[in-house]
Amino acid sequence: MESSLPGLEAILLVGGQGTRLRPLTLGTPKPLLPTAGVPFLAHQLARARAFGVRRIVFATSYKAAMFEPAFGDGAAFGLSLEYMTEESPLGTGGAIRNAAEALDSGPGDPVLILNGDILSGHDIGDQVRAHLARRAAVTLHLTEVDDPTRFGCVPTDETGRVTAFLEKTPNPVTNRINAGCYVFTRSMIDSIPCGEVVSVERETFPGLIKSGELVLGYADRTYWLDVGTPAAFVQGSRDLVLGRLDSPALPGPTGECLALDGARISPEAKVRGGTAVGARAVVEAGATVTGSVLLDDSVVESGAAVTDAVVGKGARVCAGTVVRDAVIGDGAVVGPGNELRHGVRIWPGVELPERAVRYSSDV
Ligand code: GTP
């Protein structure tokens, strides 16, 4: 890692419902979905630790009880972890305010805030140093995307000061968008109303800009991905397996395929393109799996072709089926000879009969 800042505290926002990732998030919150063989958050925790973060408060809400069993007190990750749960979801700003009750930091200290669904290669230490050097109220990581129309865009002046926080628009004024990693001066968190639903994007940041506080942009062009949609989730896993983003949490060497313990891949199968194969998952002879996520105990039968897809826990893709850019829910069975494409989602437990053929809507 580029640079380290010992002692930094962080809040990790992990309470969202992950609606865009359904049905994967019906049983598991987005930050715990297996990604390149480990819960998504493991990659973020490992990167944060590598930059000197030692204490992280999880801001939980949706399926809150599932986080502590997964990460415990954090000792296994070289971290100290705390869990703060909202009685009802407080939005991003309300969640930060609520979680801050568990921080040790003083009013002038920097606090790192991470969205729990972002993979980023940026230098967190450098972002914090930029924040401290300019005595900013908040410093936002900004990234550039080809199509900013899907995001709020964040223009800055020549000194890096954020001048506006703009909602999605068909004519964005800049390609720079909010990358979901902030450094707050602690006192700015304390100024968010307590116990209320607040959005940092819609209320806190525009409010700080309006009142003349220094909201700084930290822009860079390293690897960045919001894994909030099925296609992006699969891409994130694939990029980690292929080594396009370095992660200390990857449970094996980078390469075309990462297979967890007990996975059985026939020597006559082709598994490539950064595919992750879960524990006890089976890929039979003559099957081709490319750039996909096969979760634990799933089966891809002989002659099936799975590309850019997620196959849920215990799900089965039967012989001769084509699955491309699709999500198969946990325990679902896709009968022989089907063809699933174009973002189709099969709900958990659904059994598609043989050659129910081409699905263009969710089942
Ligand atoms: P979608 O429903 O698919 O939009 O996903 P999401 O629920 O994760 O929402 P979004 O991607 O906008 O959230 C950004 C980050 O904030 C994610 O890490 C969420 O887990 C987190 N988040 C959003 N709302 C809340 C909330 O009310 N409480 C907490 N604790 N976290 C939240």
Automatic annotation (TrEMBL):
Q: Which domain of life is it from?
A: Bacteria
InterPro entries membership: GMPPB_C (IPR056729), Mannose-1P_guanyltransferase (IPR050486), NTP_transferase_dom (IPR005835), Nucleotide-diphossugar_trans (IPR029044), Trimer_LpxA-like_sf (IPR011004)
Please give the Pfam families that the UniProt record associates with this protein.
GMPPB_C (PF25087), NTP_transferase (PF00483)
Q: Where is the Mannose-1-phosphate guanyltransferase C-terminal domain?
A: 255-337
Annotated Nucleotidyl transferase domain residues: 10-239
Family classification = Belongs to the transferase hexapeptide repeat family.
Q: Which CDD domains did the record assign?
A: NTP_transferase
Please state what the protein is called: NDP-sugar synthase
